[in-house]
Specification:
It is built from eleven helices and ten strands. It is α/β, with parallel strands linked by helices.
Length: about 325
Amino acid sequence: MSLYKILGGFALAVAAATAAAQQYPTKPITVVVPFTAGGPTDTVTRSLAAAMGKQLGQSVVVENVGGAGGTVGAARVKNAAPDGYTLLLHHIGMSTAPALYRKLQFNPLTDFETVGLVVDVPMTLIARSDFPAANFNEFLKYAKDNKAKMNLANAGIGSASHLCGLLFMSSVQTDFTTVPFKGTSDAMNALLGKQVDFLCDQTTNTTGQIQAGAVKVYGVTSAKRVASLPNVPTLQEDGLKGFEVGVWHGVYAPKGTPKAVIDKLVAAMQAAMKDPDFAKRMADLGATVYGPDKANPAAHSAHLKAEIDKWAPIIKAAGQYAD
């Protein structure tokens, strides 16, 4: 084959790819949630997908691909065609996976195109409804005095509840028996059934249970109180100085997705985040919606790198890893 034919074929391929990017999207888009249905990240994704669908003129379908702390779903998106039709919405676990997993199937920094940060969700420290403590200080004293029989639930290694639990144990310098579940719903059901003692999980999953009185709440992990839970003090207010955990969420596309496609996704995402229904839903659940200064690829990439550097020493000190 002559050089001219090779170059001509390459030019045609580039032209076709450019045309496809300009016409994007021409069919439904799938957003992978790397956790089970009904959890906090699923809640955020479904609300965002509905709002983005309005902007893009196509259905945005949510697919739950749980397993291994979110790494199975992330790996699936890494290996998907880089055409903008398969996306990933992941939380803080994207930054902790490199330290948690010895055999990680992807590199968060090099195997994806960042689209932008979406929301930041505070956590709540909650316990079974019959837990014998009226406030956080009583909770902490009881927990330390009975640490040998205290069970701390989480939604599996790498989940937000697992990370919050690690940081909590480090902050109070006390180890508790951790009980991992297959997902957030399972962990919450165990708490509601009084099979475990306490859980640290996102407001997107706990607000309804707290407001219904189904669990006891001892504090939120944000620097300020949460508007949807105005009577719940921050853990810092109650003496746990410097304890602040926010579960940020971001959108990713496979590496090599055309810039024209990423630009359309960024524009649709930023518009969707201003959608009244999405904004209200997030506010009701205590989540803070990011502005355009964070909802863009550059800010997202910088934040991801900073979070990887932040969590690596914390996880290493805890000595909790997964294969």
